[in-house]
Amino acid sequence: MTETPEIAITVSPELAGTRLDAFLAAQLADVSRATIQKAIQQGECLVNERAAKASYKVRAGDEIQLDLPEVAPLEAVPENIPLDIVYEDDELIVINKPAGMVVHPGAGVKSGTLANALVYHFNQLSRQNSLRPGIMHRLDVGTSGLIVVAKTDRAHQNLAAQFEARTTEKHYTALVYGVVKDASGRIDAPIGRDPRNRVKMAVRPQGRAALTLYRVVERFDDFTLLDVEIKTGRTHQIRVHLAHIKHPIVGDATYDGGRVNTVKDARLRSAIEKLERPFLHAASLGFSHPANGEKKSFILPLATELERFLAGLRVEKNA
What is the pTM of this model? Predict the structure, then answer.
């Protein structure tokens, strides 16, 4: 959903001692308390630049910052956008989402999304959420690869339970800056909204639990190719976690910390900039079929631009 400009409020002495959610509900008469509580729960409310609980008792002089969503459109509008369908049956669809495509309307995007394409091409989709028809999980706009869509409500509920129980298998291919020393690793670090930049996420003690596993596939002089498995589905999880261990994803302008500028080879630096996307690809997806429990697994080769970039690195490596 799109966001309004951030609301900033200073607590006056006479209102000190009020619960945070009640205080905000009183200050924002046109916003429901449930909406405010949800924003607080999602880390969209900061008190003195720190996340706080709804039950926090405000104090005189507290500086409160709050982001609230605008009212979103009721449903995705059908648009004739081509789809790369990897698999389809009566219950579900598996799609290869290209980099650059947003999954569903929101954040100022009303058209051109996967959701818009789905409602155009398919007569039957799960309607658990009209803005995300049948969509079970999301991929960042710059990430390519596999995504599963439910056609029926039964499939939606079954797949949702699998995602909740963490029994689905989701592996990504990522190229990161630097040489990762250990052959494999585990990143268990909570993720929440970055208080310094509200469009970014960050590892934060008050964030939601997030677990990422990785395995080294190939090493280069200044880069490492990883197989990454996520056990949770937090916003920007892989990108945030890999940046947290000082190995940000190549081409990720949001979280690379300026690492592209440290690449000495001008041709290589130019090639990274020309990617215009993070080197992150949802390469494999596995789940139990909601109709019969059969194990379904899908593997997708790298997007063409990523394979071309990787081939160039291998030529340099073997020169």
Answer: 0.78
